[in-house]
Amino acid sequence: MSAPENPGPELSGKPLEALCLGIAGLGLMGGAAAMALRRAFGGRRGRILACDTGRGVLDSALGKGVIDEGFDSPEQMLPRCDLVFLCLNPSTLLRFLEKWMGAFKQGALITDMAGIKGSIVEAVEKGLREDLDFIPGHPMAGAEGGGFANAEKCSFLGKNYILTPLKRNRPENLEFLKSLIRRMGFGRITETTAAEHDRKIAFTSQLCHVIAAALIDCEGDREITRFGGGSFEDLTRIAMLNAPMWTELFIENKECLLERIDQFEGSLEALKKLIRAGAAEELRERLGRVRDRRAAMA
Amino acid sequence: MSAPENPGPELSGKPLEALCLGIAGLGLMGGAAAMALRRAFGGRRGRILACDTGRGVLDSALGKGVIDEGFDSPEQMLPRCDLVFLCLNPSTLLRFLEKWMGAFKQGALITDMAGIKGSIVEAVEKGLREDLDFIPGHPMAGAEGGGFANAEKCSFLGKNYILTPLKRNRPENLEFLKSLIRRMGFGRITETTAAEHDRKIAFTSQLCHVIAAALIDCEGDREITRFGGGSFEDLTRIAMLNAPMWTELFIENKECLLERIDQFEGSLEALKKLIRAGAAEELRERLGRVRDRRAAMA
After folding, report:
1. ipTM for this prediction
2. Chain A residues near residue B141 by CB distance under 8 angstroms
3. Which H or E element spans position A110?
Protein backbone atom coordinates (compact mmCIF):
# COMPACT_ATOMS: atom_id res chain seq x y z
CA MET A 1 0.00 0.00 0.00
CA SER A 2 2.94 2.36 0.51
CA ALA A 3 4.94 1.68 -2.64
CA PRO A 4 7.74 4.23 -3.14
CA GLU A 5 6.03 5.79 -6.17
CA ASN A 6 2.93 6.41 -4.03
CA PRO A 7 3.54 9.65 -2.14
CA GLY A 8 1.01 8.70 0.52
CA PRO A 9 -1.33 10.93 2.46
CA GLU A 10 -0.38 14.40 3.60
CA LEU A 11 -1.47 16.39 6.63
CA SER A 12 -1.21 20.18 6.36
CA GLY A 13 1.15 19.74 3.42
CA LYS A 14 3.48 17.38 5.32
CA PRO A 15 3.93 13.82 4.09
CA LEU A 16 3.21 10.99 6.55
CA GLU A 17 6.89 10.34 7.24
CA ALA A 18 7.51 13.94 8.31
CA LEU A 19 4.69 13.96 10.85
CA CYS A 20 4.91 13.78 14.59
CA LEU A 21 2.09 11.59 15.98
CA GLY A 22 0.99 11.56 19.59
CA ILE A 23 -0.92 8.87 21.44
CA ALA A 24 -2.59 9.75 24.72
CA GLY A 25 -3.14 6.57 26.72
CA LEU A 26 -1.17 3.40 25.97
CA GLY A 27 -3.84 0.88 26.91
CA LEU A 28 -5.17 -1.85 24.66
CA MET A 29 -6.32 0.48 21.88
CA GLY A 30 -3.54 3.04 22.25
CA GLY A 31 -0.95 0.28 22.20
CA ALA A 32 -2.53 -1.42 19.19
CA ALA A 33 -2.74 1.97 17.42
CA ALA A 34 0.94 2.65 18.11
CA MET A 35 1.88 -0.73 16.65
CA ALA A 36 -0.29 -0.21 13.57
CA LEU A 37 1.08 3.31 13.03
CA ARG A 38 4.65 2.03 13.34
CA ARG A 39 3.87 -0.45 10.59
CA ALA A 40 2.12 2.27 8.53
CA PHE A 41 5.30 4.38 8.68
CA GLY A 42 7.22 1.37 7.41
CA GLY A 43 10.93 2.03 7.19
CA ARG A 44 10.29 5.76 6.82
CA ARG A 45 10.95 8.59 9.22
CA GLY A 46 8.18 10.06 11.32
CA ARG A 47 7.92 10.06 15.08
CA ILE A 48 5.45 8.39 17.43
CA LEU A 49 5.16 9.95 20.85
CA ALA A 50 3.00 8.61 23.67
CA CYS A 51 1.92 9.71 27.10
CA ASP A 52 0.61 7.50 29.86
CA THR A 53 0.51 7.66 33.64
CA GLY A 54 2.10 4.18 33.79
CA ARG A 55 5.87 4.39 33.42
CA GLY A 56 6.12 0.62 32.93
CA VAL A 57 3.89 0.76 29.90
CA LEU A 58 5.97 3.53 28.32
CA ASP A 59 9.20 1.61 28.96
CA SER A 60 7.70 -1.53 27.47
CA ALA A 61 6.58 0.36 24.34
CA LEU A 62 9.97 2.04 24.01
CA GLY A 63 11.67 -1.33 24.43
CA LYS A 64 9.60 -2.82 21.62
CA GLY A 65 10.39 0.17 19.39
CA VAL A 66 6.68 0.88 19.07
CA ILE A 67 7.06 4.49 20.21
CA ASP A 68 10.01 6.87 19.90
CA GLU A 69 9.46 8.89 23.06
CA GLY A 70 7.35 8.39 26.18
CA PHE A 71 5.93 11.05 28.51
CA ASP A 72 4.21 10.69 31.85
CA SER A 73 2.32 13.92 31.22
CA PRO A 74 0.91 15.32 27.97
CA GLU A 75 2.38 18.74 28.74
CA GLN A 76 5.62 18.25 26.84
CA MET A 77 4.17 15.96 24.19
CA LEU A 78 1.10 17.78 22.85
CA PRO A 79 2.85 20.95 21.58
CA ARG A 80 4.93 18.79 19.21
CA CYS A 81 2.19 16.62 17.67
CA ASP A 82 0.61 17.22 14.25
CA LEU A 83 -1.90 14.47 14.93
CA VAL A 84 -3.06 13.18 18.31
CA PHE A 85 -4.94 9.95 19.01
CA LEU A 86 -6.88 10.10 22.27
CA CYS A 87 -7.08 6.49 23.45
CA LEU A 88 -8.77 7.07 26.79
CA ASN A 89 -11.97 6.03 28.53
CA PRO A 90 -14.75 8.57 27.83
CA SER A 91 -14.66 10.31 31.23
CA THR A 92 -10.85 10.54 31.25
CA LEU A 93 -10.97 11.81 27.68
CA LEU A 94 -13.37 14.63 28.55
CA ARG A 95 -11.22 15.69 31.52
CA PHE A 96 -8.10 15.45 29.34
CA LEU A 97 -9.56 17.77 26.69
CA GLU A 98 -10.61 20.31 29.28
CA LYS A 99 -7.28 20.29 31.08
CA TRP A 100 -4.93 20.23 28.09
CA MET A 101 -6.82 22.19 25.45
CA GLY A 102 -4.18 24.93 25.60
CA ALA A 103 -1.29 22.52 25.06
CA PHE A 104 -2.15 21.16 21.57
CA LYS A 105 0.06 22.33 18.68
CA GLN A 106 -1.37 25.16 16.54
CA GLY A 107 -3.62 23.64 13.82
CA ALA A 108 -3.26 20.06 15.05
CA LEU A 109 -5.64 17.29 14.06
CA ILE A 110 -7.12 15.26 16.92
CA THR A 111 -9.11 12.05 16.86
CA ASP A 112 -10.33 9.68 19.54
CA MET A 113 -11.17 5.99 19.83
CA ALA A 114 -13.87 5.98 22.47
CA GLY A 115 -16.81 3.57 22.19
CA ILE A 116 -19.37 6.34 22.63
CA LYS A 117 -19.60 9.49 20.58
CA GLY A 118 -22.53 11.67 21.78
CA SER A 119 -20.94 13.20 24.87
CA ILE A 120 -17.57 13.58 23.16
CA VAL A 121 -18.98 15.37 20.13
CA GLU A 122 -20.92 17.64 22.47
CA ALA A 123 -17.80 18.55 24.44
CA VAL A 124 -15.75 19.12 21.28
CA GLU A 125 -18.40 21.31 19.69
CA LYS A 126 -18.51 23.42 22.82
CA GLY A 127 -14.91 23.67 23.80
CA LEU A 128 -12.50 22.98 20.93
CA ARG A 129 -9.96 25.70 20.15
CA GLU A 130 -10.70 27.45 16.85
CA ASP A 131 -7.44 26.45 15.18
CA LEU A 132 -7.75 22.73 16.03
CA ASP A 133 -9.65 20.03 14.16
CA PHE A 134 -11.23 17.04 15.91
CA ILE A 135 -12.64 14.05 14.01
CA PRO A 136 -14.38 11.61 16.38
CA GLY A 137 -13.78 7.94 15.61
CA HIS A 138 -14.35 4.42 16.87
CA PRO A 139 -12.26 1.47 15.71
CA MET A 140 -14.37 -1.69 15.98
CA ALA A 141 -11.63 -3.87 17.35
CA GLY A 142 -10.65 -5.31 20.69
CA ALA A 143 -9.13 -8.24 22.53
CA GLU A 144 -9.77 -10.10 25.77
CA GLY A 145 -8.06 -8.74 28.79
CA GLY A 146 -7.01 -5.19 28.18
CA GLY A 147 -4.10 -2.87 28.67
CA PHE A 148 -0.91 -2.53 26.67
CA ALA A 149 0.06 -6.10 27.59
CA ASN A 150 -2.73 -7.40 25.33
CA ALA A 151 -2.32 -4.82 22.55
CA GLU A 152 -0.52 -7.24 20.24
CA LYS A 153 -3.59 -9.51 20.32
CA CYS A 154 -5.79 -6.66 19.12
CA SER A 155 -5.76 -6.97 15.34
CA PHE A 156 -7.07 -4.15 13.13
CA LEU A 157 -6.89 -6.18 9.94
CA GLY A 158 -10.07 -5.79 7.89
CA LYS A 159 -12.00 -4.46 10.90
CA ASN A 160 -14.68 -1.79 10.74
CA TYR A 161 -13.96 1.83 11.66
CA ILE A 162 -16.71 4.33 12.41
CA LEU A 163 -16.14 8.07 11.98
CA THR A 164 -18.67 10.68 13.11
CA PRO A 165 -17.29 13.79 11.39
CA LEU A 166 -18.33 17.28 12.49
CA LYS A 167 -19.53 20.02 10.15
CA ARG A 168 -16.45 22.05 11.05
CA ASN A 169 -13.98 19.29 10.06
CA ARG A 170 -11.65 20.25 7.22
CA PRO A 171 -12.35 17.90 4.27
CA GLU A 172 -8.64 17.38 3.60
CA ASN A 173 -8.12 16.32 7.23
CA LEU A 174 -10.95 13.80 6.95
CA GLU A 175 -9.43 12.38 3.75
CA PHE A 176 -6.03 12.18 5.42
CA LEU A 177 -7.41 10.38 8.49
CA LYS A 178 -9.33 7.88 6.36
CA SER A 179 -6.21 7.15 4.34
CA LEU A 180 -4.22 6.64 7.54
CA ILE A 181 -6.92 4.37 9.01
CA ARG A 182 -6.72 2.18 5.91
CA ARG A 183 -2.92 2.05 6.26
CA MET A 184 -3.41 0.87 9.84
CA GLY A 185 -5.12 -2.20 8.40
CA PHE A 186 -8.81 -1.41 8.84
CA GLY A 187 -11.33 -2.49 6.21
CA ARG A 188 -14.66 -0.73 5.91
CA ILE A 189 -14.90 2.89 7.12
CA THR A 190 -18.42 4.12 7.85
CA GLU A 191 -19.25 7.81 8.31
CA THR A 192 -22.33 8.56 10.35
CA THR A 193 -23.65 10.86 13.05
CA ALA A 194 -22.78 10.52 16.72
CA ALA A 195 -26.43 9.78 17.54
CA GLU A 196 -26.65 7.01 14.93
CA HIS A 197 -23.31 5.58 16.09
CA ASP A 198 -24.51 5.41 19.68
CA ARG A 199 -27.78 3.73 18.69
CA LYS A 200 -26.08 1.09 16.52
CA ILE A 201 -23.23 0.46 18.91
CA ALA A 202 -25.70 -0.01 21.78
CA PHE A 203 -26.83 -3.09 19.85
CA THR A 204 -23.72 -4.57 18.22
CA SER A 205 -21.37 -3.93 21.09
CA GLN A 206 -22.88 -2.88 24.41
CA LEU A 207 -25.95 -5.17 24.38
CA CYS A 208 -23.68 -8.09 23.45
CA HIS A 209 -21.41 -7.34 26.40
CA VAL A 210 -24.38 -7.06 28.77
CA ILE A 211 -25.69 -10.43 27.53
CA ALA A 212 -22.31 -12.11 27.91
CA ALA A 213 -22.00 -10.70 31.42
CA ALA A 214 -25.53 -11.85 32.35
CA LEU A 215 -24.77 -15.36 31.06
CA ILE A 216 -21.76 -15.68 33.33
CA ASP A 217 -23.55 -13.88 36.17
CA CYS A 218 -26.31 -16.53 36.25
CA GLU A 219 -24.05 -19.60 36.37
CA GLY A 220 -21.83 -20.54 39.31
CA ASP A 221 -20.35 -23.85 38.10
CA ARG A 222 -16.69 -23.41 37.14
CA GLU A 223 -16.69 -26.88 35.59
CA ILE A 224 -19.46 -25.87 33.18
CA THR A 225 -16.98 -25.70 30.29
CA ARG A 226 -16.93 -29.54 30.33
CA PHE A 227 -20.32 -29.16 28.69
CA GLY A 228 -19.22 -26.48 26.27
CA GLY A 229 -19.33 -27.13 22.56
CA GLY A 230 -18.37 -23.74 21.20
CA SER A 231 -21.54 -21.70 21.58
CA PHE A 232 -21.07 -20.99 25.28
CA GLU A 233 -17.43 -20.10 24.63
CA ASP A 234 -18.39 -17.83 21.70
CA LEU A 235 -21.06 -16.03 23.68
CA THR A 236 -18.98 -15.44 26.80
CA ARG A 237 -15.50 -14.70 25.48
CA ILE A 238 -16.25 -10.98 25.78
CA ALA A 239 -17.32 -11.45 29.41
CA MET A 240 -13.60 -11.12 30.19
CA LEU A 241 -14.14 -7.39 29.95
CA ASN A 242 -12.50 -4.23 31.18
CA ALA A 243 -15.02 -3.52 33.95
CA PRO A 244 -14.30 0.21 34.49
CA MET A 245 -14.45 1.00 30.78
CA TRP A 246 -17.65 -0.94 30.08
CA THR A 247 -19.29 0.53 33.16
CA GLU A 248 -18.67 3.97 31.68
CA LEU A 249 -19.88 2.98 28.23
CA PHE A 250 -23.06 1.32 29.53
CA ILE A 251 -24.01 4.24 31.76
CA GLU A 252 -22.96 6.95 29.31
CA ASN A 253 -25.12 5.38 26.57
CA LYS A 254 -27.84 4.07 28.84
CA GLU A 255 -30.78 5.56 26.98
CA CYS A 256 -29.94 3.67 23.77
CA LEU A 257 -28.72 0.60 25.63
CA LEU A 258 -31.82 0.21 27.80
CA GLU A 259 -34.01 0.45 24.72
CA ARG A 260 -31.96 -2.29 23.04
CA ILE A 261 -32.13 -4.50 26.13
CA ASP A 262 -35.92 -4.09 26.13
CA GLN A 263 -36.15 -5.05 22.45
CA PHE A 264 -33.96 -8.08 23.06
CA GLU A 265 -36.05 -9.10 26.07
CA GLY A 266 -39.14 -8.81 23.90
CA SER A 267 -37.76 -11.28 21.37
CA LEU A 268 -36.56 -13.58 24.15
CA GLU A 269 -40.04 -13.53 25.71
CA ALA A 270 -41.62 -14.39 22.36
CA LEU A 271 -39.30 -17.38 21.88
CA LYS A 272 -39.89 -18.45 25.49
CA LYS A 273 -43.64 -18.43 24.96
CA LEU A 274 -43.38 -20.63 21.87
CA ILE A 275 -41.09 -23.04 23.72
CA ARG A 276 -43.38 -23.18 26.76
CA ALA A 277 -46.42 -23.78 24.53
CA GLY A 278 -44.56 -26.46 22.59
CA ALA A 279 -45.55 -24.56 19.43
CA ALA A 280 -43.18 -26.49 17.18
CA GLU A 281 -44.40 -25.17 13.85
CA GLU A 282 -44.31 -21.49 14.84
CA LEU A 283 -40.95 -21.90 16.56
CA ARG A 284 -39.46 -23.63 13.52
CA GLU A 285 -40.71 -20.82 11.29
CA ARG A 286 -39.37 -18.10 13.57
CA LEU A 287 -35.97 -19.81 13.88
CA GLY A 288 -35.92 -20.27 10.11
CA ARG A 289 -36.45 -16.52 9.64
CA VAL A 290 -33.66 -15.83 12.14
CA ARG A 291 -31.34 -18.11 10.23
CA ASP A 292 -32.11 -16.43 6.90
CA ARG A 293 -31.76 -12.95 8.37
CA ARG A 294 -28.39 -13.75 9.97
CA ALA A 295 -27.17 -15.33 6.73
CA ALA A 296 -28.15 -12.16 4.83
CA MET A 297 -26.14 -10.08 7.31
CA ALA A 298 -22.96 -12.09 6.86
CA MET B 1 -2.38 -42.43 17.92
CA SER B 2 -2.72 -45.72 16.03
CA ALA B 3 0.91 -46.78 15.78
CA PRO B 4 1.30 -50.34 14.40
CA GLU B 5 2.65 -51.68 17.73
CA ASN B 6 -0.52 -50.43 19.45
CA PRO B 7 -3.18 -53.09 18.93
CA GLY B 8 -5.95 -50.55 19.55
CA PRO B 9 -9.33 -51.05 21.13
CA GLU B 10 -11.38 -54.20 20.66
CA LEU B 11 -15.13 -54.71 20.54
CA SER B 12 -16.41 -58.20 21.43
CA GLY B 13 -12.92 -59.55 20.86
CA LYS B 14 -12.62 -57.99 17.39
CA PRO B 15 -9.92 -55.39 16.73
CA LEU B 16 -11.02 -52.03 15.34
CA GLU B 17 -9.92 -52.85 11.79
CA ALA B 18 -12.09 -55.97 11.68
CA LEU B 19 -15.27 -54.16 12.70
CA CYS B 20 -18.20 -53.14 10.58
CA LEU B 21 -19.48 -49.70 11.62
CA GLY B 22 -22.84 -48.29 10.70
CA ILE B 23 -23.96 -44.69 10.63
CA ALA B 24 -27.66 -43.91 10.56
CA GLY B 25 -28.17 -40.40 9.18
CA LEU B 26 -25.47 -38.68 7.13
CA GLY B 27 -26.19 -35.12 8.19
CA LEU B 28 -23.69 -32.73 9.74
CA MET B 29 -22.80 -34.98 12.69
CA GLY B 30 -23.15 -38.30 10.86
CA GLY B 31 -20.96 -37.01 8.08
CA ALA B 32 -18.36 -35.62 10.47
CA ALA B 33 -18.41 -38.91 12.40
CA ALA B 34 -17.87 -40.91 9.19
CA MET B 35 -14.88 -38.72 8.31
CA ALA B 36 -13.40 -39.03 11.79
CA LEU B 37 -13.92 -42.81 11.84
CA ARG B 38 -12.28 -43.15 8.42
CA ARG B 39 -9.24 -41.33 9.83
CA ALA B 40 -9.38 -43.49 13.01
CA PHE B 41 -9.20 -46.62 10.86
CA GLY B 42 -6.16 -45.16 9.15
CA GLY B 43 -4.87 -47.36 6.34
CA ARG B 44 -6.38 -50.41 8.01
CA ARG B 45 -9.30 -52.54 6.97
CA GLY B 46 -12.69 -52.14 8.60
CA ARG B 47 -15.89 -51.07 6.91
CA ILE B 48 -18.03 -47.99 7.31
CA LEU B 49 -21.64 -48.35 6.21
CA ALA B 50 -24.20 -45.58 6.21
CA CYS B 51 -27.90 -45.22 5.62
CA ASP B 52 -29.73 -42.04 4.73
CA THR B 53 -32.95 -41.19 2.94
CA GLY B 54 -31.01 -38.83 0.66
CA ARG B 55 -29.37 -40.68 -2.20
CA GLY B 56 -27.27 -37.63 -3.13
CA VAL B 57 -25.69 -37.57 0.29
CA LEU B 58 -24.76 -41.26 0.10
CA ASP B 59 -23.25 -40.80 -3.38
CA SER B 60 -21.27 -37.82 -2.20
CA ALA B 61 -19.92 -39.74 0.82
CA LEU B 62 -19.08 -42.75 -1.38
CA GLY B 63 -17.35 -40.45 -3.86
CA LYS B 64 -15.21 -38.95 -1.12
CA GLY B 65 -14.32 -42.43 0.13
CA VAL B 66 -15.75 -41.56 3.52
CA ILE B 67 -18.07 -44.59 3.57
CA ASP B 68 -17.71 -47.99 1.92
CA GLU B 69 -21.38 -48.73 1.30
CA GLY B 70 -24.52 -46.61 1.32
CA PHE B 71 -28.12 -47.72 1.98
CA ASP B 72 -31.37 -45.85 1.59
CA SER B 73 -32.94 -48.01 4.28
CA PRO B 74 -31.38 -49.45 7.46
CA GLU B 75 -32.90 -52.86 6.73
CA GLN B 76 -29.89 -54.29 4.91
CA MET B 77 -27.30 -52.35 6.87
CA LEU B 78 -28.14 -52.93 10.53
CA PRO B 79 -27.76 -56.76 10.56
CA ARG B 80 -24.10 -56.36 9.50
CA CYS B 81 -22.95 -53.70 11.98
CA ASP B 82 -20.99 -54.41 15.17
CA LEU B 83 -21.34 -50.76 16.18
CA VAL B 84 -24.02 -48.31 15.08
CA PHE B 85 -23.93 -44.52 15.45
CA LEU B 86 -27.41 -43.01 15.41
CA CYS B 87 -26.93 -39.48 14.06
CA LEU B 88 -30.57 -38.42 13.90
CA ASN B 89 -32.78 -35.71 15.37
CA PRO B 90 -34.33 -36.92 18.66
CA SER B 91 -37.82 -37.60 17.31
CA THR B 92 -36.50 -39.42 14.22
CA LEU B 93 -34.15 -41.38 16.46
CA LEU B 94 -36.97 -42.58 18.71
CA ARG B 95 -39.03 -43.67 15.70
CA PHE B 96 -35.96 -45.36 14.19
CA LEU B 97 -35.33 -47.41 17.33
CA GLU B 98 -38.93 -48.53 17.52
CA LYS B 99 -39.13 -49.47 13.87
CA TRP B 100 -35.77 -51.19 13.45
CA MET B 101 -35.14 -52.75 16.85
CA GLY B 102 -35.41 -56.23 15.31
CA ALA B 103 -32.84 -55.51 12.61
CA PHE B 104 -29.74 -54.84 14.72
CA LYS B 105 -27.00 -57.49 14.69
CA GLN B 106 -26.98 -59.85 17.67
CA GLY B 107 -24.94 -58.28 20.51
CA ALA B 108 -24.31 -55.00 18.67
CA LEU B 109 -23.23 -51.82 20.42
CA ILE B 110 -25.30 -48.73 19.66
CA THR B 111 -24.62 -45.11 20.50
CA ASP B 112 -26.29 -41.86 19.55
CA MET B 113 -25.29 -38.22 19.13
CA ALA B 114 -28.49 -36.39 20.02
CA GLY B 115 -28.34 -33.13 21.95
CA ILE B 116 -30.84 -34.32 24.54
CA LYS B 117 -30.59 -37.49 26.58
CA GLY B 118 -33.59 -37.84 28.94
CA SER B 119 -36.19 -39.05 26.45
CA ILE B 120 -33.67 -41.25 24.65
CA VAL B 121 -32.47 -42.96 27.80
CA GLU B 122 -36.08 -43.53 28.79
CA ALA B 123 -36.91 -45.16 25.45
CA VAL B 124 -33.78 -47.31 25.52
CA GLU B 125 -34.39 -48.50 29.08
CA LYS B 126 -37.92 -49.51 28.13
CA GLY B 127 -37.46 -51.00 24.71
CA LEU B 128 -33.89 -52.15 24.00
CA ARG B 129 -33.43 -55.78 23.01
CA GLU B 130 -31.73 -57.83 25.76
CA ASP B 131 -28.68 -58.76 23.68
CA LEU B 132 -27.94 -55.19 22.55
CA ASP B 133 -25.99 -52.49 24.37
CA PHE B 134 -26.77 -48.77 24.01
CA ILE B 135 -24.48 -46.05 25.37
CA PRO B 136 -26.05 -42.59 24.97
CA GLY B 137 -23.63 -39.86 23.94
CA HIS B 138 -23.40 -36.24 22.85
CA PRO B 139 -20.40 -34.86 20.97
CA MET B 140 -20.08 -31.15 21.77
CA ALA B 141 -19.25 -30.07 18.25
CA GLY B 142 -21.02 -28.39 15.39
CA ALA B 143 -20.72 -26.04 12.45
CA GLU B 144 -22.82 -23.35 10.85
CA GLY B 145 -25.23 -24.48 8.24
CA GLY B 146 -25.87 -28.17 8.62
CA GLY B 147 -26.15 -31.30 6.57
CA PHE B 148 -23.45 -33.46 5.04
CA ALA B 149 -22.32 -30.54 2.87
CA ASN B 150 -20.96 -28.79 5.97
CA ALA B 151 -19.60 -31.90 7.72
CA GLU B 152 -16.00 -31.15 6.79
CA LYS B 153 -16.26 -27.84 8.69
CA CYS B 154 -17.31 -29.69 11.85
CA SER B 155 -14.06 -30.38 13.65
CA PHE B 156 -13.93 -32.82 16.58
CA LEU B 157 -10.37 -31.94 17.52
CA GLY B 158 -10.05 -31.44 21.27
CA LYS B 159 -13.81 -31.04 21.67
CA ASN B 160 -15.84 -32.26 24.65
CA TYR B 161 -17.85 -35.48 24.52
CA ILE B 162 -20.57 -36.28 27.04
CA LEU B 163 -21.59 -39.88 27.76
CA THR B 164 -24.58 -40.78 29.92
CA PRO B 165 -23.96 -44.52 30.46
CA LEU B 166 -26.73 -46.83 31.65
CA LYS B 167 -26.39 -49.29 34.52
CA ARG B 168 -26.83 -52.15 32.05
CA ASN B 169 -23.92 -51.03 29.82
CA ARG B 170 -21.11 -53.57 29.59
CA PRO B 171 -17.96 -51.99 31.07
CA GLU B 172 -15.79 -53.27 28.22
CA ASN B 173 -18.13 -51.65 25.67
CA LEU B 174 -17.89 -48.33 27.52
CA GLU B 175 -14.09 -48.55 27.51
CA PHE B 176 -14.08 -49.40 23.81
CA LEU B 177 -16.38 -46.50 22.95
CA LYS B 178 -14.29 -44.01 24.96
CA SER B 179 -11.16 -45.22 23.24
CA LEU B 180 -12.81 -44.82 19.83
CA ILE B 181 -14.08 -41.34 20.72
CA ARG B 182 -10.52 -40.28 21.57
CA ARG B 183 -9.32 -41.70 18.24
CA MET B 184 -11.96 -39.58 16.52
CA GLY B 185 -10.13 -36.55 17.87
CA PHE B 186 -12.21 -35.56 20.87
CA GLY B 187 -10.53 -34.20 24.01
CA ARG B 188 -12.29 -34.40 27.35
CA ILE B 189 -14.90 -37.13 27.87
CA THR B 190 -17.36 -36.52 30.71
CA GLU B 191 -19.61 -39.25 32.11
CA THR B 192 -22.77 -38.09 33.79
CA THR B 193 -26.49 -38.84 34.10
CA ALA B 194 -29.02 -37.98 31.42
CA ALA B 195 -30.76 -35.58 33.82
CA GLU B 196 -27.52 -33.73 34.61
CA HIS B 197 -26.62 -33.63 30.91
CA ASP B 198 -29.96 -32.08 30.02
CA ARG B 199 -29.66 -29.47 32.81
CA LYS B 200 -26.12 -28.44 31.82
CA ILE B 201 -26.74 -28.51 28.09
CA ALA B 202 -29.82 -26.31 28.56
CA PHE B 203 -27.35 -23.67 29.69
CA THR B 204 -24.21 -24.11 27.57
CA SER B 205 -25.96 -24.95 24.34
CA GLN B 206 -29.71 -24.37 24.18
CA LEU B 207 -29.86 -21.08 26.12
CA CYS B 208 -26.99 -19.76 23.98
CA HIS B 209 -28.88 -20.62 20.80
CA VAL B 210 -32.08 -19.00 22.11
CA ILE B 211 -30.11 -15.84 22.97
CA ALA B 212 -28.43 -15.72 19.56
CA ALA B 213 -31.80 -16.17 17.88
CA ALA B 214 -33.40 -13.43 20.02
CA LEU B 215 -30.55 -11.04 19.15
CA ILE B 216 -31.17 -11.46 15.43
CA ASP B 217 -34.93 -11.54 15.93
CA CYS B 218 -34.90 -8.05 17.48
CA GLU B 219 -32.83 -6.32 14.78
CA GLY B 220 -34.00 -5.71 11.24
CA ASP B 221 -31.07 -3.75 9.79
CA ARG B 222 -29.08 -5.93 7.37
CA GLU B 223 -26.32 -3.33 7.27
CA ILE B 224 -25.79 -3.63 11.01
CA THR B 225 -22.55 -5.56 10.49
CA ARG B 226 -20.94 -2.26 9.46
CA PHE B 227 -21.02 -1.55 13.18
CA GLY B 228 -19.75 -4.97 14.18
CA GLY B 229 -16.46 -5.31 16.01
CA GLY B 230 -16.45 -9.02 16.75
CA SER B 231 -18.82 -9.35 19.69
CA PHE B 232 -21.99 -9.21 17.60
CA GLU B 233 -20.47 -11.70 15.16
CA ASP B 234 -19.40 -14.00 18.03
CA LEU B 235 -22.81 -13.93 19.68
CA THR B 236 -24.84 -14.54 16.53
CA ARG B 237 -22.75 -17.00 14.52
CA ILE B 238 -24.88 -19.83 15.95
CA ALA B 239 -28.06 -18.03 14.86
CA MET B 240 -27.46 -19.72 11.49
CA LEU B 241 -29.05 -22.77 13.01
CA ASN B 242 -30.78 -25.91 11.85
CA ALA B 243 -34.32 -24.75 12.70
CA PRO B 244 -36.09 -28.17 12.78
CA MET B 245 -33.41 -29.73 15.00
CA TRP B 246 -33.23 -26.85 17.48
CA THR B 247 -37.02 -26.64 17.64
CA GLU B 248 -37.02 -30.27 18.75
CA LEU B 249 -34.21 -29.76 21.25
CA PHE B 250 -35.78 -26.64 22.78
CA ILE B 251 -39.22 -28.21 23.18
CA GLU B 252 -37.95 -31.63 24.24
CA ASN B 253 -35.84 -30.05 27.02
CA LYS B 254 -38.17 -27.17 27.78
CA GLU B 255 -38.37 -27.68 31.52
CA CYS B 256 -34.62 -27.21 31.97
CA LEU B 257 -34.37 -24.59 29.25
CA LEU B 258 -37.18 -22.37 30.58
CA GLU B 259 -35.55 -22.44 34.02
CA ARG B 260 -32.24 -21.35 32.47
CA ILE B 261 -33.89 -18.57 30.48
CA ASP B 262 -35.51 -17.32 33.70
CA GLN B 263 -32.15 -17.32 35.51
CA PHE B 264 -30.53 -15.47 32.62
CA GLU B 265 -33.36 -12.93 32.56
CA GLY B 266 -32.86 -12.40 36.28
CA SER B 267 -29.21 -11.51 35.79
CA LEU B 268 -30.05 -9.33 32.81
CA GLU B 269 -32.67 -7.49 34.89
CA ALA B 270 -30.14 -6.91 37.67
CA LEU B 271 -27.60 -5.44 35.25
CA LYS B 272 -30.32 -3.32 33.63
CA LYS B 273 -31.31 -1.88 37.00
CA LEU B 274 -27.73 -0.89 37.77
CA ILE B 275 -27.36 0.71 34.34
CA ARG B 276 -30.66 2.58 34.65
CA ALA B 277 -29.72 3.83 38.12
CA GLY B 278 -26.27 4.83 36.90
CA ALA B 279 -24.86 2.82 39.82
CA ALA B 280 -21.30 2.90 38.51
CA GLU B 281 -19.57 1.43 41.55
CA GLU B 282 -21.94 -1.55 41.91
CA LEU B 283 -21.90 -2.17 38.17
CA ARG B 284 -18.10 -2.09 38.03
CA GLU B 285 -17.94 -4.57 40.91
CA ARG B 286 -20.47 -6.91 39.35
CA LEU B 287 -18.72 -6.81 35.96
CA GLY B 288 -15.41 -7.37 37.72
CA ARG B 289 -16.80 -10.52 39.35
CA VAL B 290 -18.12 -11.67 35.96
CA ARG B 291 -14.71 -11.17 34.44
CA ASP B 292 -12.98 -13.15 37.20
CA ARG B 293 -15.53 -15.95 37.04
CA ARG B 294 -15.25 -16.27 33.25
CA ALA B 295 -11.45 -16.26 33.49
CA ALA B 296 -11.61 -19.08 36.08
CA MET B 297 -13.81 -21.09 33.70
CA ALA B 298 -11.35 -20.82 30.80
Report:
1. 0.90
2. 229-230
3. strand A109-112
